[in-house]
């Protein structure tokens, strides 16, 4: 089957699912909602060489609305499971109740493995922008990959989401001491705060519209400390119907170190970039420095920071769960 025919069938199938999703009265978890979004994810997982920017304006409009609906449904699902987990004395002992927990384990391991290649010393201050009511990424990073003294600041626009997130870590005082939750738009986070982070993770749904995403990237490029690392989540191919795309060439003011597009059930692509020094105060972000794509290279990853003598060489296509 030619790539053009595959693309046509993909768009047709996703359009059918979109029509059904857009007719739903409510996107909270239910048998019908779960069924439709499961079908959507399964339709987008196969590696199909589609460039969503080249699709018709009608399809691109549909895609933008679909991402918004998916983001809303994802938020409601995370609220639902965060509330369930909060009923336990130690919610962190029951994270596997969330049906996509294993995906978060894989994604966090992937991000950590890519990141650790470029970190000379363990990061002490880490930010996660867009943490949500079920901040599994930052919890997994803190608990499995970035032990004390690493300190993680989580930012989200929604005060209720942060309240839910705080409940999840209350049963682990040691972890709770290393994680804070701030209700703020990253665009309002001052330069003084952003310059304090060694690593900043940018969630996929921060800035759904392309222009909004680029404004966030520009804000970070102007205000992160030179040499600090940005880990940005993106999407590739058919998966771009689920999440916004960040093109490496759009990361002005950063040196793009590596890009990885998963081919398994992990949906998000991962870009690791280093903040470049500004030419002078107030200067516009520099054109991104591009390294060759390392999608198929092997990387050296620490089991966790602070135990740098224990290393493993991991093929990205064969990362363990």
UniProtKB/TrEMBL annotation:
What this protein is called in its record is Nicotianamine synthase
Give the function comment from the record: Synthesizes nicotianamine, a polyamine which serves as a sensor for the physiological iron status within the plant, and/or might be involved in the transport of iron.
> Mind telling me which Gene3D superfamilies this protein's record contains?
Vaccinia Virus protein VP39
Which controlled-vocabulary keywords does the entry list?
S-adenosyl-L-methionine, Transferase
To which species is this protein native? Answer: Canna indica (Indian-shot)
The EC number(s) attached to this protein equal: 2.5.1.43
What GO biological process term is on the record, naming one? nicotianamine biosynthetic process
Query: Which GO terms fall under molecular function for this chain's record?
Result: nicotianamine synthase activity
The record's similarity note reads: Belongs to the nicotianamine synthase (NAS)-like family.
According to the lineage, what is the superkingdom?
Eukaryota
Recorded catalytic reaction(s): these are: 3 S-adenosyl-L-methionine = nicotianamine + 3 S-methyl-5'-thioadenosine + 3 H(+)
Quote the Pfam families the UniProt record gives.
NAS
